[in-house]
């Protein structure tokens, strides 16, 4: 039991902020995010003994966090609003330098948030994991689809976002 507690505490210490960010993608409400965070921790604790190490611990935690968040938000997830924070480190993954220079940051973020909120459930999940900085392989493991499928979906989403955010004028 002590070993399990130590392992759990290490997981929470190493991944607590990452889990909180995932919660923030799935709920704009602070209290819901706290409840979601607790549910994720409970699910990690319950599943800790059954972790086989087939995937990395980080991928396993992301999978639990995403699945718990999806379950927590349930059917309301289709209408949920993804919150894009201005200081999101990995936001640059969505745009190349030319696109960033053409669009003003504030208007771009507002429009991006609108476009993200109109996406399907799977597309929202893909984008939230991409914004977290996961590799295509890790996203595939978390979502449960093939890596080539992840690459195609993310490429298409990026192209759609570029087109919509630049008024349909991009190369």
UniProtKB/TrEMBL annotation:
It holds the Pfam family Sigma70_r2. It comes from the Bacteria. GO terms for molecular function: DNA binding; sigma factor activity. GO terms for biological process: DNA-templated transcription initiation. Residues 12-69 form the RNA polymerase sigma-70 region domain. InterPro entries: RNA_pol_sigma-70-like, RNA_pol_sigma-70_dom, RNA_pol_sigma70_r2, RNA_pol_sigma70_r4_t2, RNA_pol_sigma_r2, RNA_pol_sigma_r3/r4-like, WH-like_DNA-bd_sf. Residues 95-122 form a coiled coil. Keywords: Coiled coil, Sigma factor, Transcription, Transcription regulation. Residues 116-161 form the RNA polymerase sigma factor 70 region 4 type domain. Belongs to the sigma-70 factor family. ECF subfamily. NCBIfam families: sigma70-ECF (TIGR02937). This is Sigma-70 family RNA polymerase sigma factor. It comes from Labilibaculum euxinus.
């Amino acid at each position: 039991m002590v070993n399990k507690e130590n392992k759990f505490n290490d997981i929470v210490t190493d991944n607590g902020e990452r889990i909180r960010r995932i919660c923030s993608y799935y709920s704009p409400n602070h209290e819901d995010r706290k409840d979601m965070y607790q549910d994720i921790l409970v699910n990690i604790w319950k599943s800790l003994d059954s972790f086989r190490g087939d995937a990395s611990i980080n991928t396993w935690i992301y999978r639990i966090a995403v699945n718990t968040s999806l379950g927590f938000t349930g059917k309301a997830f289709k209408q949920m609003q993804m919150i894009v924070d201005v200081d999101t480190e990995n936001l640059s993954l969505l745009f190349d330098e030319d696109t960033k220079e053409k669009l003003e940051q504030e208007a771009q973020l507002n429009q991006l948030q609108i476009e993200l909120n109109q996406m399907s459930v799977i597309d929202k999940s893909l984008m939230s994991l991409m914004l977290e900085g996961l590799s295509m392989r890790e996203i595939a493991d978390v979502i449960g689809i093939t890596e080539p499928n992840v690459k195609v979906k993310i490429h298409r989403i990026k192209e759609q976002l570029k087109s919509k955010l630049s008024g349909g004028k991009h190369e």
